[in-house]
């Protein structure tokens, strides 16, 4: 029960971060908002790590993999923040939900896992769900929708690398290193895009980092009490918080096509998760 509560709390915190990012995107560049997400996440995570988890501050055995993981997540964040600056939170998140399908599709290559006909079928059906949302040929495909899909692709590869690192590096160390990598890289771009924030914008930028930090800490705590595969279906709760924030603060509500595509993608993702659990039990 603790695992479920912590996991659901994470999917309440992270959409708040997205809502703040969308609000700021009307006045500040997407790269600057992304910088804030990384800078303040590291600023809040480092003291927590130092005072409460100091023993976990041990250098990684796989620095190259940590660097790649950080680059991929940074790319995913830039894509997602760009997409929500133009399209609704719900539509962007729905398209990003293809991440579990990407994990399933590429796990045979990168993780050596066997994927059977049923899970391949679920991947194909989930991809069809994303096409229902975009409706190519009926609605003009914009860069924001493609960026949201790109977020899902990048996040899928991020999850694959996370699985590879889970057997060697502590999750808290991985969280910190990912934040540091992103903060350093994105900082190089700040002199070219920086717009001086006012006090209110500074507070929102800091809040983005706080909610990102809390959200990811809740995910880590949930994984202490249950396997990732068992908790995977609960990640779709994020869309509930997302829709509420989008409707209440931005007057955005998903249309019937977004809901239909979301339903298909969620069914595919849940089926893949349940199938993975069954396969693990049979081993």
Entry keywords:
13 helices, 283 residues, globular, single chain, mainly alpha
- How many domains? The number is 1
Low-confidence stretches: none
Fraction of residues in helix: over 70%
User: What is the tally of helical segments?
Assistant: 13
Q: What gross morphology would you assign?
A: globular
Helix/strand/pairing category? mainly alpha
> Count the strands?
0
The H/E string reads HHHHHHHHHHHHH
Gap from first CA to last CA: 26 Å
Average pLDDT confidence is 84
The main β sheet shows up as:
none
Radius of gyration from the alpha-carbon trace, in angstroms = 18 Å
Strand content: under 5%
What does this structure look like?
With 283 residues, the protein is mainly α. The chain has one domain. Helices cover 78% and strands 0% of the residues. The protein has helices at residues 2-24, 30-52, 63-84, 89-96, 99-110, 117-134, 143-165, 171-187, 190-193, 199-225, 228-231, 238-250, 256-282. It is globular and about 55 Å long.
Summarize the structure.
This protein is mainly alpha-helical. The protein is built from 13 helices and no strands.
List strands and helices in order, with pairings.
Layout: H1 2-24, H2 30-52, H3 63-84, H4 89-96, H5 99-110, H6 117-134, H7 143-165, H8 171-187, H9 190-193, H10 199-225, H11 228-231, H12 238-250, H13 256-282
Helix pairs in contact: 1-10, 1-12, 2-3, 2-8, 2-10, 3-7, 3-8, 4-7, 4-12, 4-13, 5-6, 5-7, 6-13
